[in-house]
Sequence to fold (203 residues):
Amino acid sequence: MLGVSARTLERWRGTHPTDVRPSARRCPANALTAAEPDAVLTVVNSAPYRDCSPHQIVPRLADTGVYLASESTRYRVLRAEQLLAHRGRAAAPVRRPPQRHEATGPNQVWSWDITYLKTPVRGVFFYLYLIVDMWSRKIVGWQVCATENADDAAALVTTACHRAACAPPLRVLHADNGGPMKGATMVVTLERLGVLPSFSRPG
Fold:
């Protein structure tokens, strides 16, 4: 139950009443005394420092010639007192469920991406821009370009929307978090077309 052998227990009861094992954890010489954690809590909860993190408090105190404990020690003291939650003016995080888009017919939700196309020259690629209707899996627009940028993507989306004559109009265009997908030209184009951009969640 103790996790030690009977021989170790006999040795402790005999000549060594304390734990003398080499791996035994001993209190470091620079450990805080019983009163020093209270002093640390008094400082971090005072008006000048209550909105600051230990990463900010330690150098500010050092500028005034005061040193009570290291940054990591302050974090340990605050963690033990459950005072690490939102030290500052930041709002508490809000957990939101992932946004879902449902298509009940064609030309309501589109998804698009850019993929590489090999060429005879090693290291040189063409770029295939492809837009797919999520409901019917129909390819509603595509083009091959020599570069990857938001201008070509915006032109393709505009052409695809006009060609499809969406009725009801296209509501959502989903993509990943690539540069052309979030470029300024692409954002302005979708806003002009009245299309809601949707992006994959990070991670």
Summary: The domain at 109-199 is CATH 3.30.420.10 (Nucleotidyltransferase; domain 5). The chain has two domains: 35-87, 109-199. The longest strand covers residues 109-118. The first helix runs from residue 6 to 13.
